[in-house]
């Protein structure tokens, strides 16, 4: 889940919006509103092996979904709605994958 933090943070005199990824431990995604740059750290592998070091790829999909939903509120169109549906489907697929891995007791390992 993404939580938007309303206050601005400044890094090297650049205004950064913070988006916090909630769940296990919180990680900030830095979004520079002047340059439209996003800075984040990806989880390098299973948390059971690497510890909690970053965000999951599904969090990036959640971020893209949030951006498209915001865009569609301002400039609605059919293509945005299709993109939103596809991103929601991708997140659902990953939840199903996680459930399956938990049931097979291989979640948090490199086992297929």
Structure report:
The structure is a single chain. Helix 2 (57-74) packs antiparallel against helix 3. The protein is built from three helices and four strands. The two termini are 26 Å apart. The protein has helices spanning 47-50, 57-74, 78-103; strands at 2-11, 14-21, 27-32, 37-39. The radius of gyration is 16 Å and the shape is flat. It has a four-stranded antiparallel beta sheet. It has two domains: 1-51, no CATH class; 56-104. It is 43% helix and 24% strand. With 112 residues, the protein is of the alpha+beta class. Residues 1-8 have low confidence and may be disordered.
Indicate the radius of gyration in whole angstroms: 16 Å
Instruction: Name the average pLDDT.
Output: 77
Distance between the termini: 26 Å
Number of beta strands: 4
Number of helices: 3
Helix content: 40-55%
Count of spatially separate domains: 2
Describe the largest sheet. 4 strands, antiparallel
Percent range for β-strand residues: 15-25%
Q: Which word captures the global form?
A: flat
Unreliable residue stretches: 1-8
**SSE arrangement, N to C:** EEEEHHH
Q: Structural class of the helices, strands and pairings?
A: alpha+beta
What order do the strands of the largest sheet run in, or round the barrel if closed? 1-2-3-4
By oligomeric state, this entry counts as single chain
In short:
With 112 residues, the chain is an alpha+beta fold.
């Amino acid at each position: 889940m993404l939580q938007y933090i309303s206050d601005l943070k400044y890094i090297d005199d650049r205004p950064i919006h913070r988006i916090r990824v909630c769940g296990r431990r919180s990680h900030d995604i830095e979004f520079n509103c002047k340059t439209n740059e996003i800075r984040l750290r990806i989880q390098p592998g299973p948390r059971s092996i690497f510890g909690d070091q970053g965000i999951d790829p599904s969090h990036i999909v959640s971020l893209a979904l949030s951006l498209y939903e915001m865009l569609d509120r301002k400039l609605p169109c059919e293509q945005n709605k299709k993109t939103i549906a596809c991103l929601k489907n991708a997140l659902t697929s990953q939840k199903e994958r996680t459930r399956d891995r938990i049931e097979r007791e291989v979640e948090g390992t490199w086992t297929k």
